[in-house]
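Page 42, continued from yesterday. The earlier attempt failed because a stray header line got pasted into the input along with the sequence. Redoing it now with the clean sequence only.
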Amino acid sequence: MSATRLLILGVLRSKQPIHGYDVRRELEAWQAERWAHIAYGSIYFALNKMAAERLVKAVETDQVGKRPARTTYAITPEGEAEFQRLLREYWWEFKTVIDPFQVALAFTKYLPRDELLAALHHRAAAARSKAEELELAIRSKTGPDTPPQFPENLRLAADHVEVNARWAEAAIEKVERGDWP
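This time it went through. Structure tokens are written below.
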């Protein structure tokens, strides 16, 4: 939740006042789903929660015709303090990302060898495919108006995926040699 919180507070800080729907559109333009694993449906929940915590405030609610009411939000001084705290926490503290795969990896010995190899081949191919997709996104979404941090987010995600592919390929070799598991 705190990564989503930082994203939403950051968008509010730079674009306020703004509707929740426009926060979503901004994060979609940033391709945040590729590097922040944000669930766009969680934006409205997070905005409501942050409003209850007085990190953001509803500036106005309007309704056009029969469309659903839209609330415009702005960041509060408390929200600015939370934004600054999270920003610095994430820049200065290294946090290991826990991948559920690592939990499954602990039980590798319970997979038949042929299934393990098939899974590793699949994992390596999927990682290579995702790396190519991210590389394409970096090239296609970079233009003169693109802030430099957005391609860097994609680059970091691509590098993580590349490491996964290399690990899976090395694991395949170990299994085929009989060195693992």
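Notes: Residues 149-177 form the longest helix (29 residues).
Reminder to self: strip header lines before submitting.
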